[in-house]
Every structure is written in structure tokens, then in C-alpha cells.
Amino acid sequence: MSSLAQCLSRVMCLLAVTAVSVSLSSHTWKEEGVVYGKIGDAVTLTCSSRSPSSEVQWRFNGSSNITWGNVTNQGDLDLPHVGPSVMGTYSCNDLSGELIQSVLLKVGYPPGIPSVTCRAADYHNFSCYWNSSVETLLPSRYITSYRVDRSSPEDCLRDPRLPNVCSVRNSKLWMSYQMNITEENPLGSSFRIMEFYVQSIVKPDPPEIVSAEPVPHAPRRLRVTWAYPSTWPQEPHFQLRFRIQYRPVLHMLWSTVETANLTDIITDAFMGTEHIVQVSARDFLDAGNWSEWSLEARATPWTSTETPELVSDACNETTSEEPEPQVKEPFDPVEKMAVTISLGIFAFVVLVIFLAVGALIWVRVGRTVKGGGIKANFLTAIHMKTLPKNQIL
Ligand SMILES: *[C@@H]1O[C@H](CO)[C@@H](O)[C@H](O)[C@H]1NC(C)=O
Ligand SMILES: *[C@@H]1O[C@H](CO)[C@@H](O)[C@H](O)[C@H]1NC(C)=O
Fold first, then answer.
1. Distance separating alpha carbons of residues 360 and 351, to the nearest angstrom
2. Which residue has a Cα nearest atom 11 of ligand 2?
3. Cα(109) to centroid of ligand 2, in Å?
4. By the 8 A CB rule, do 157 and 143 touch?
5. Shortest-distance ligand to the CA of residue 113
6. Residue range(s) of every CATH 2.60.40.10 domain in the chain
7. Ligand nearest to the Cα of 150, by number
8. Integer-rounded Cα radius of gyration of the chain
9. Ligand nearest 166 Cα, by number?
10. Cα separation, 180 vs 20, whole angstroms
11. Which ligand 1 atom sits nearest the alpha carbon of residue 170?
12. How far is the CA of 25 from the centre of ligand 1 (A)?
């Protein structure tokens, strides 16, 4: 049953990513007196006087010895292969040494396609985070926009204090969002398109106020309690479910249990041993992802200090892997019934979704056949097969 639910959620949470890189030759970022060159490419520096080469002298950071460049007949300076070592100030002078013009050459790379991740901490707004994928050595800026169901683009909001994040407020469920994160520098621009539904990028913040405590007279039990992440809106139609992971401090392997409640009792803790407990949360209907694990809580199960015989008995029983008959633990039949009922409701919901998807597929297939798509292909195939026979006859 749970694998079916997972499968369905995967179908719903289709995440499409497109990436495109464009190199602009025009310098949209022209700064007065600065020329940008792509490392490995040729760059030509022009002298504004346009005098013949015999009347012009080029200097690099004051020195006239430029072994990596050639002066053209028009007095321009050709640099066939620029790299970081040729960055600096170039000046052209007339023969008397008078400065005609000076330019600063900066070299680097055009931007690569930025890497982008988008995440919704709740269903009402989400944020996208990005990183450049290429060290361009040049200043760059980002243009961030989005479209909902292919409508006209809107700005993804930026906070100047957070450089690589933009946010969308009042996001809508069941609508396709198309984010466009563009990195631009003087040598070009590259953008990445992320297309998704908000429910597929939901990842709650971790549960809060996680605590673990011993259960009196139960040497193998720990009660764990926690609270919803404060960023998650407390609305009845957006519930979370939880999983708990726990292990003795000195062990490496975690055990996990899942629950929809805000408290759970671990029943197989190791006696007299301190345990580490963490909780994570996920949308109740399995949309999106599990949150990160919460902060750790630690606790040691209850141990009897007054009756040492009981403890040693209990220890023997653990080694022989038998239950603990002498420990009458508080057992709540109401809780058991509640779990059974919620499991039943869950099974019913999954069944309804399954039937709905089935009906949808049935209707679609029915339509295709009615529309003649399948029939036509089928007839064509028959026709092709029979054709040679007809010719033979
Ligand atoms: C989401 O929106 C609510 C109100 O619309 C706001 O209070 C909250 O700070 C927003 N969260 C983020 C992460 O922007
Ligand atoms: C993404 O945004 C950039 C910058 O605004 C724009 O040039 C580019 O065409 C956009 N791409 C798409 C697919 O909308």
C-alpha cells in the first residue's frame, strides 16, 4: 500500500528542468574604459586616433614591451590569445609619448548554467537558491523571474541581504511554476528553467521542541514528544506526519518508526542505556520531501534502583530475547484503536485516489480510440501488411 502511495506521489511530483546557455557578443555591461575578453580568445584593442601603426605606440602597465600582441596597420593592438597574465591597463600614445587613450582589459569566462534548487517550507510561499557553476572571474548579476502556467513573467522577489535567494509569495497549488534564473556577466548570460508544482518541492522545516523521557516502570520504553515546525501553517488540510529515528549513544545504526501523532513510545530501547532521538516531518499525503532531522534529544529508559533483582531478571530476559512479563506497562487500547482507524482512513483515501486515476486513464484511452488515433494506426498497419499480397494477386 505504501509503495503505491509513493508511486502516485512520484507521478504527481514530476519535476522538469531545462537549461540553456546563451553567449552574448554585445557587451550589455559596458563600463567606461574597460574591455572584457574571454580567456583563450582574441581581443583587439582600438586606438581612438585611428592613426597608422608607424605613429602609435602601445604600452602595457607603462611598459612598451608587449610580446603577446601585434600592432595592426590601423594602429590597433591585436592580442591573439588572452589569459589572466595579460590583464591590465593598455595605453596608446603618439610618437611624442602623449597619451591618446587608455583601456583596462579584464578577462574571464561567460557564465555557466547556474545550479538551482527550489524549496517550499510550507504551501504558501517558496524560495529558489542558486550557485554559479563556473568561476567566471568577472562580476555577475542574476535576473530571476517566474511564470505560472505559462502566463506572463513576474519577478521572483529578492532580499539584498540574501544574495543567492529569491522568493515567491502566495503560491498556488496544482499550478505549474516555471522559474527562470539567469546569470549574466559582460561576456554573456546563461539561464536555467525549473518547472514544478509547489506540492512537489514542499520540504517542511524539522519538528521543534523534541524531547525524550523514560516511561515509569518500563525499562525498554522511551516517550518522545515534539511540535510542528513553527513555519508550518496550522491548518487542518495541511497535516504532517513524522518519523522518529533512535539509537543508543554508542551504536551506529538507527531504528526508525513512523507516526501521525505528536508523541510516540519507543518500545525496544536498550535497558539502562542513553539513547539519541531525532524526528523529521513530511506532508501527510507524501507530497514533496522529508524535512531534515530535528535537533537531538537524549534520554535513558527507566531503571529500578530499589529492586535490583528485577533489573537483573530483566537483563537476562533481554539476552534471551523474550518479552518482559513482569513489567506491566501502561497500554492504551484507545490509542491502538485510533491507530487502526487512521490506518483504515488512509487505506480508503489511497483506494479512492487509485480509482480516480484509473477512471481518468480509462476515459483518456477511450477518447483516443474514439478520436480514431489508435484505429487509424491499426488500419494503416493492416493496410501495409496486405498491400504486397494485393500486388502479388
Ligand atoms: C510566507 O508568507 C507568510 C505570509 O504570507 C510570511 O509571514 C512568511 O514570512 C513567508 N515565508 C517566507 C519563507 O517567505
Ligand atoms: C529567462 O530570462 C532571461 C533574462 O530575463 C531571458 O533572456 C530568457 O529569454 C528567459 N528564458 C525563458 C525561457 O523565458
1. 14
2. 180
3. 20
4. no
5. 2
6. 2-27+111-200, 40-108, 208-299
7. 2
8. 34
9. 1
10. 10
11. 5
12. 40
Testing ligand 1's pocket by substitution, the residue of 124, 202, 235 carrying the most ligand atoms inside 8 A of its CB is 124
Q: Which residues of the chain have pLDDT under 50?
A: 1-17, 21-27, 309-331, 369-393
What is residue 350's predicted lDDT score, i.e. its pLDDT?
A: 82
Distance CA 283, CA 242 (A): 9
Q: What is the pLDDT of residues 220-242, one digit of tens each?
A: 999 999 999 999 987 777 899 99
What's the CATH fold of domain 208-299? Immunoglobulin-like (2.60.40)
Q: Yes or no: is domain 40-108 CATH 3.40.50.2020?
A: no
- CB-defined site of ligand 1, < 6 Å: 121, 124-125, 167, 169
In CATH, 2-27+111-200 is 3.10.310.50: no
pTM: 0.65
Q: Pick from 152, 151, 148, 158: which is nearest to 127 by CA?
A: 158
pLDDT in tens, 147-180: 998 899 999 999 999 989 999 999 988 899 999 9
Atom of ligand 2 nearest to the CA of 145: 2
